[in-house]
Automatic annotation (TrEMBL):
Species assigned in the record: Lentzea kristufekii
Residue intervals of the MobA-like NTP transferase domain: 5-162
Pfam families: NTP_transf_3
InterPro entries: MobA-like_NTP_Trfase (IPR025877), Nucleotide-diphossugar_trans (IPR029044)
Signal peptide: none
Protein name: Nucleotidyltransferase family protein
């Protein structure tokens, strides 16, 4: 099975105060760490969707071994980035979708979802019973996800109206989003 990786890194990060793609953690930008994570898990290809401050992200980030695409409609929300990314993935049996602001996701969590990869599957990580990321979308669902992805909902409506396998990843990862600077400070123990 060929499993692509799709990194959604186009948002302006309004609650954070800057695009989260440009947030540094442990000496690397979020966008580079997440792209490297998808590559390390064996995703092929890895597609990174940029939007807000795309030129600055390209200037600062490494983004090696990945396909970078711009979402000209990034300001309309995550749905347009999901559509842009799925178009760019090309032929794959499934895609693992990861938002750039989930630095606690690990290769082990990605592998748990990727082990389920087949064209008909939908799966998502859970953490202590709470749904989270990453999400695995089989190729049979690409058209339906693209048709329903709107605003900041991404694939949420499509996933709610279809059978989705939940994969517990709490023992190998942290699926918490970093939405605000204080979320990052809590993660790093810094002030």
């Amino acid at each position: 099975m060929r499993v692509a990786g799709l990194l959604l890194a186009a948002g302006a990060g309004r609650r954070f105060g800057s695009p989260k793609a440009l947030v540094p953690l442990h000496g690397k930008l979020f966008v580079d760490s997440a792209a490297e994570l998808l590559r390390a898990a064996g995703c092929d290809p890895v597609v990174v969707v940029l939007g807000a401050q795309a030129a600055e992200v390209r200037r600062q980030a490494t983004l090696q071994g990945v396909t970078v695409v711009d979402n000209p409609h990034w300001a309309t929300g995550m749905g347009s980035s999901l559509r842009t990314g799925l178009h760019a993935v090309g032929t794959a049996d499934a895609v693992v979708v990861l938002p750039v602001d989930t630095p606690g996701v690990t290769v082990e969590a990605l592998h748990r979802l990727m082990a389920l990869a087949e064209p008909s599957v939908l799966a998502r990580a859970t953490y202590d019973g709470e749904i989270g990321h990453p999400v695995l979308i089989g190729s049979d669902h690409f058209a339906g996800v693209m048709a329903s992805a709107a605003g900041d909902q991404g694939a949420r409506d499509y996933l709610q109206s279809n059978t989705v396998r939940h994969v517990d990843c709490a023992d190998v990862a942290d699926g918490a989003d970093v939405d605000r600077p204080e979320d990052l400070r809590r993660r790093t123990g810094g002030a």
